[in-house]
Every structure is written in C-alpha cells, then in structure tokens.
Write the structure tokens for this entry.
Amino acid sequence: MMSEGPCISDEALEEKDKCNRTSIILNALLFISKFIIGILSMSMSILSDAIDSGIDVITSAMARYSVQKAHEPADEDHSYGHGKYENLSGLIQAIIIVLIAIGIILEAIRRIITGVVLESLDLGIVIMLVSIVVKFGLSGKMLGIAKKHDSVAMEANAYNLRADVWMSFGVLASLAIIKFGEPYLNNIEYIDPVLAIIIGIMIMRSAFDIGKRSSQDLLDAQLPEDELKVVKEIMTKHETDLLDYHRFRARKSGNERHIDMHIVVPKDISILDAHKITDDIEAEIKEKVENVSVVIHVDPCEGNCTACDKKDDK
C-alpha cells in the first residue's frame, strides 16, 4: 500500500521564496558596492569579498529556483516528486564556488608577486561593517527558515552567508591594521592579498561541505539516525499486530522522505484487518516524521510458524 505523497503548504513555499528574494536583492547591492570600492581602493581582499557576494547572488537565485521546483507535485516524468532539485542545486553551487575560489587565490598570488598598492581604505572599512551586519541578520533568518522547513538548498546558502560574516570581519580587521599600522610597519599592505588567499581557502572548504551534504541525498543516503529511530519505535509498538517487517528502506530527496517496507501478518487475517494495520502504521509515521511518503507491502506468513501459533493460542 502507498500513502499520499508529502504535503508541503503554499505558506511554507511563500516564506522560503520571500527569504530567497531578499537574499538576492541584498547580496546584489553588497556585490555592487564592494566591487566599486574594491576597484577604488585596489584591495584584493575587498574584491574577493565582493566576488563572494556575487556568488551569493547566484546561489540564492539557484536556491530560489530549486525550492520552487522541489515544491512541484509528482508527475508522469518524476513519480517520486522533484525534491532532488534542491540537492542538485547545492552540488552545482559547490562546483561554482570552488572554481571562483581558485580564481581568487591565483589573483592574490599574482598581486603578491607584482606588488600591492592600496587606497581609500576608509570606504572599505565602512562597506565591510555594513556587510557584516546585513549578512549576519540574513543568515540567521535564512537558517531558521531552512531548519523549519528542512530545505537543503536554503541551509547550504545560510551557512555560506554565515561563513561570509567571518570573512568580512577578517577583511575589516586587515584593513584597519593596514590603515593604522602602515606608518610604523614595512610591507604591511601584503596582509591584503594574503588574507584574500585565506578567504579563497575558506570559500573552498565551505563549498566542499555543501557538495558533500548535497551528494549524500542524490545518492539516496539513509535518513538521519534520529528519524530512523522514530520509525523503528513505531514498528516495535505494532509488534502485537504483525509478525515481522523486513526489506526496510528509507531515503531522503530534498526535504522529502521516502520509506518502504514489507510487513508479515498472520496468513488467516482478513484484507480489511491488514489494511487497517498498514493505515495505522502509515498514519503514525506521517505524524512523527515530516514530509514523508510511505509504501508498505503486506506479506502473509507461510503458516506453521511459532508466532502464528502464539497468536492462535490467544
């Protein structure tokens, strides 16, 4: 038997979409501002942070599209729904981020070799302060919504923004050190491209984390242990109704869960009673596990088994 597919409300979709739209707009404004100030100041660290904000525009747009696509109901071509669009989006985000991080590192190395000249550091300090405040607030809001609705794409984007906060803070600190330490220390301006390299490495590490998380669900990895524990407790609760269950499988697709199993019931049980057992199990699983679709196949026992004899004695 098969339960109805996961039920995802329009309110949840609207809440996620509103957050993603806000992220796109704010990151676009930060990208433009940082890029202009980065050019004026000739700061590689500001330009690197600007490029990272540009990445955030792309990833937020991808997250928005994938979330909308994942909410589409199952159709003839996608009988299991569209949940993996979120996972695919996360993997593509990771690849893009890695490539851009490599570009940042190579450009920073070039700057170290050819020399560093910095100007207009005050503007850089101001835009970094603004970036820290905006991205910290945005990442917190996005992470809360991602956790609430179990959105892989939004969670990846939220953690990316949270990492950006620390990177912007590092850029802010380096600009302040260069500004106030330049009269006293020689070659202190080389902190700028060195920090850009560190930022590139941090961006790359974040990308690998996102890629790992996304690829797990694309490869039909098992459900989280806490959710599996809940399902197993429900099955244990129904030991008096059935003889056994086997061929248990569970996987995650985006924010959707898919569970299927075979249950063994006494061979003399009526179809109506078997149907009620499966309905009860499905209802309890759907009550305890969000966005889940359950498929249960009923097998009769082969007869003359100890479990059946015990049930007959009752």
